[in-house]
Amino acid sequence: MPPTASHPRGYRPVFAVREFRAVFAAHLLSLLGVVVCELALTVLVHDLTGSPLLSALTFALGFLPYVVGGTLFAGVADRYPARRVLVVCDLLCAGCIAVMVLPGTPVAGLLALRCLVAGISPVFTGTRTAALTDILGEGELFVLGRSLLRIVSQSAVLAGFGLGGLLLTVVAPRGALGITLVTFLCSATLLRCGTRRRPARARTADDGALLRSSLSGARQLFGDRRVRVLMLLFWVQPMFVVAPEALAAPYADAIGAGPAAIGLLMCAMPVGHIAAELFAGSRLSPRTRSRIVLPLAGAGLLPFLLYAARPGLAFALVLLTLAGAAAAYGIGLDRWFVAAVPEELKGRAMTLMTAGLMTVQGIGMALAGLAAEFVPVHLTLAGAGALGTLCALCLVLEARRAGAVPAGRESGGDRTARRG
Fold it and tell me: This protein's superkingdom (predicted)?
């Protein structure tokens, strides 16, 4: 039986579902591949051109195509069987990496292939998230499964780049890209052999052309007041919370901290997020997790206001850890969102949500850097906290007015998951 509100059992029941174990293992491999690819490609482009700008652009291209792929191709997630979409996405990414490995591939080709991989990513992630509702049901197990994937992603921020950097000390960049190729192929194999084939959510004949289906789905989703405000709740806090990460180096310089401080400032929020989400998933009941969504969404950026006092390194780390912990509101918001979206639009909704999340983070980093050109860094961060809190509180009020808070949010019920 799934866990109930009165008897939370943590993450163990999720791993009892055979198909989820395959999805989880594939997620680990995909993350490994993406992290190694980003580092190796950045180093490779710098080696080939000697240009810091092109090297930085290579990394930035991981954000930019999300909005294009997530908007124009979101219909794929509902139009075709999920397993087929996931496997094809992995194989397409593997094909792109295979071309990158070839010694004759020019820099322009490397950048174009990087864009293509990033454009495929939101379709893959959105389809996988929607597929979790089939594998785990739409209740407690889905929430915990999503939480586990999110925790792994945050952990990759902490460990992935460090391990990737070590790898590049013993393997050439193209050799590292070869490892990425293997991880995508292994992920495709796991998803093909470890998950069941299920029919597509939407009928092709009803949905028409793919582009029209994608844009029509986006209009329907944003036309629904409840879905729209829930989507924005996923986006607004991350848009502002990335400011300290984007400005970690200038802030460390401003307070006279050494280079090691930059790494600490970059790691503090992921540490807070991972710890809080693990606690919420393993110790809090569904009812409690639902109750903390709006308070944490509205108040999560308040610690940034104390940057106005230009805190030293130790206090800044505390503030960042608190802000990271507030991001655990997503574990309750996931359940609200999946309950609000019609079944035939779930794939498109998850794809758009993922694409928007990555896009707003890229925008937030750019805006923070721009503001810091004219305003001291500590005041820029305090301003991000103030403006972000104002936007978040407006969304919290709108969520209540729009009836986006599920009437049955106090229930710990769940749909029975299909177990393998």
Answer: Bacteria
